[in-house]
What we know:
By secondary structure, this protein is an alpha/beta fold. It has three domains: 1-177, Arc Repressor Mutant, subunit A, CATH 1.10.10.10; 180-257, Tetratricopeptide repeat domain (Serine Threonine Protein Phosphatase 5, Tetratricopeptide repeat, Alpha Horseshoe), CATH 1.25.40; 285-421, 3-Layer(aba) Sandwich (Rossmann fold), CATH 3.40.50. It is 53% helix and 10% strand. Strands 8-7-9-10-11 form a five-stranded parallel beta sheet, sandwiched between helices. A three-stranded antiparallel beta sheet has the order 1-2-3, with no helix packed on it. Helix 6 (152-178) packs parallel to helix 8 and helix 9 packs antiparallel against helix 10 (240-250). 29% of the residues are buried.
Amino acid sequence: MAGLEFRLLGRVEVYRDGVPVDVGGPKHRAVLASLLLRVRRVVSVEQLIDDLWPQQPPVRAAATVQVFVSQLRRALEPGRCRGEAATVLVTASPGYLLDVDPDTVDAHAFADLVVRGREALDAGQPEQAAQELRRAEEMLLGPALADVPSTPFVAAAAARLTELHLGAIEDRIDAELALGRHAALVAELEQRVRRHPLRERLRAQLMLGLYRCGRQVDALATYRRTRRVLREELGLEPGVRLRELEQAVLCQDPALVWRPSVPAPTAPTGMTPGHDSPSAERPGRILVVDDTAINRRLLAAAVTELGHEVETAENGHRALEVLRAADDGPGGFDLVLLDLLMPVLDGYATLAEIKDDPALAAVGVIMVSAVPELESVVRCIELGAIDYLPKPYSSTMLRARLRASLQARRSAADRESALRTEIATLRAEVCRAQTATRPEHR
């Protein structure tokens, strides 16, 4: 019905053209919440009974639910004539269906905003992401389903909405960090860490914000406090992400420094297109290796969307064949994205063979794995991998890893080329000097 709006992100409320609608008592609101959370889906009477009375339903539970539904119908459609079919809260075997636009339910509109914000963040559009995610963040008016009697159904639904809200906040902070707003974020992050001391992502964001503000000591102190809290509360060590961030801060890793996004510079007059500086973002030639077809396609598609040329291989043996048969000679690829766990020839063995082959050893290899354990990371680095990409990954993370690896490879290639040129020049000078001292030139 036009003009109806529903709220779950706080108290359960209904508005018609901006005016509050009285929907009844706590059990009425519980029935309405159950239907709203499953909007445009049939909810059985048995499910509604379980949502309302999970342990000991009353003898006439089904009849009581029918009464609640009838009263809700009158509240939602006050102008409906007696005997006229309902159009909002519809009877649909084996229960009921709330036939309203999901966008009129704040919880569904909120979830859509979060999805759009995350998509913008993954697409490298942090300004749009920050705007969408802040709008989503501001929709929560208090604890979700605050005035509904607590049941396992209500607790689980409220927990899901709360977690989605916290995730949206963390995504928005990532977007603002990408925009260079670290100085303004530090105070907010300190408050959020106090409220949610076990959320490692918030603590990692605080460490990064402090480091970018020139507060390296405070960033490391945050890590130490995090480690102490996790050990005391859960008996756990910080996760891989936090441990890697601590090491990056200790090493003053240049990758931690914020750099504004700027348009690619115009090539100077006389410079041939495609031969710009090694630091510029140029497409690379990348081999994706994964034994699972769907994972291979998804990763290849993500790399292609970032503008790179991609080929794929279904196992380690095939990867070695593709690398050795490259059109521009062995090692013609810039990077290999290599899945760690493969049954035919696993990532460790494939990586070792690549690095043992003199023709392929210079190809950069990034390991990809859903189990980023420290032992695995160390072993891969020892075998010669240049990076480790944990699953699941966002396109933002993938873009950053590829960019850094390609720039490092190109810088190394340019240094090697310059060294070869210098050696050739020195050899030419030696030859000229030797020629000048021969008897026939005296």
